[in-house]
Amino acid sequence: MTTNLTAPPAVRPAGSIRTRLILGAAVVLVAFLVGAGWALERAHADSVRLARYDRLQSTIYLLLARAELDPDGGLIMPYSLPEPRLALPSSGLYANISNPNHREEWQSPSTLGLSPPFPRRLDAGEWRYEELERGSKTYLAAAYGVKWSEGPRAMPLTFSVLEDTVAFRRELASFRRTLWTWLGGAGVLLLLAQTLLLGWGLAPLRRVAREIRRVETGEQARVEGRYPAEIAGLTGNLNTLIEQERARQTRYKDALGDLAHSLKTPLAVLRGALNEPAELAQTVSQQVARMDGIVQHQLGRAAASGAARFAPPLLLLPVFQRVVDSLAKVYADRQLQYAVACPSKLSWRLDEGDAFEVFGNLLDNAAKWAKGRVRVTAVQQGNRLTVRIEDDGPGFSDADAALQRGVRLDEQVPGHGIGLTVVADIVAAHGGQLTLARSEWGGGLVEIVLQST
């Protein structure tokens, strides 16, 4: 059977953050400038239009001041007008007075040869402002209807003034060119400033990327630079991952080296036992048990997960309960009493496998030697966790030797004695402390202290 092993697909970069931010800022800036420019242009156009309507209204008032009616109700206008443009043909400003009762109209000399669309027949007191078209030309128009009283008679008149929009459009076009020139220049300057600011703001990310590449190539051991608060957590976690991985590799390397070295002696004994057939079976049994203990010890050391900053918090009470329930079945004939003092919500960032390995070994060791009672106590104070496991057995006569060999100094209870040293290695991998002492019952006391970073 052939097994094809393929490497996992490489993570492809999804574009540059700097490019994304610049494009996003450019889109927002352009949208803002277009909206602001359109609003300013409309506001200016309305303002200019209103100003021109005011001027047309003022011209109507001037015409009202000069207009007169003869005794028959006919309209009389002076030869000279107060507005010079009204006397200049095709000047762009045109006036009309409509007298419907006499079927007559007066138009300013500026209308010579033209027929502007003057509004007619407005009600008395009515003002009208509008934009009118005639052919290809457009006009701004203001008109006012009056009832002219002359003695006992009242004559309806309509005054209207038109202005060609050529000057109006020219003024708007000039403002538009100036407005968009300045807005475009301001937009370019803002984009340049944003590009520079983004380059300065993202410089720490580029720097940490360079440091990570140097870590990968072995040029440096960890991320060493000082970074802003937003990135400091990332660089700290990266350093933790790097240190954990190196510690794990070191544990595996040391465990393999120690395993190879530790197996040399049992193998040499087995080799020598081949020359003594009478004792071969006993020697093989002893050395196989010894090698089994060595292998379990080294595998336990190598499998320790180590400090687990990124492991999810593990509730400790269920772990203690499961171990105690298992031990109650294993040592049911001894009728031991187990006490667990642990808050139900107490949790710790600890690998579940390491937790069962540590507490399982310690509680099993306490149950082997207990006369009738085993107690486990877990207390958290700030970032410090203390776990105490005690029994009422004979206790430790030599704590250092017990840690080295992993057993009580009395060899009457079955077991190859790997437990305590495996526990000590796992606790050390988590940066904790393990202490052996005498309990208040006179038996053994094992205290583990872990501290979070």
From TrEMBL:
This is histidine kinase. PANTHER family: SENSOR HISTIDINE KINASE YKOH, SENSOR PROTEIN PHOQ. Residues 258-453 form the Histidine kinase domain. Its main location: membrane. One of its GO terms (molecular function) is ATP binding. The chain crosses the membrane at residues 20-40, 179-203. Residues 199-250 form the HAMP domain. It catalyses: ATP + protein L-histidine = ADP + protein N-phospho-L-histidine. Its EC number is 2.7.13.3. It comes from Chitinimonas viridis. It is found in: Membrane. Keywords: ATP-binding, Kinase, Membrane, Nucleotide-binding, Phosphoprotein, Transferase, Transmembrane, Transmembrane helix, Two-component regulatory system. Pfam families: HATPase_c (PF02518). InterPro entries: HAMP_dom, HATPase_C_sf, HATPase_dom, His_kinase_dom, HisK_dim/P_dom, HisK_dim/P_sf, Sig_transdc_His_kin-like_C, TCS_sensor_his_kinase.
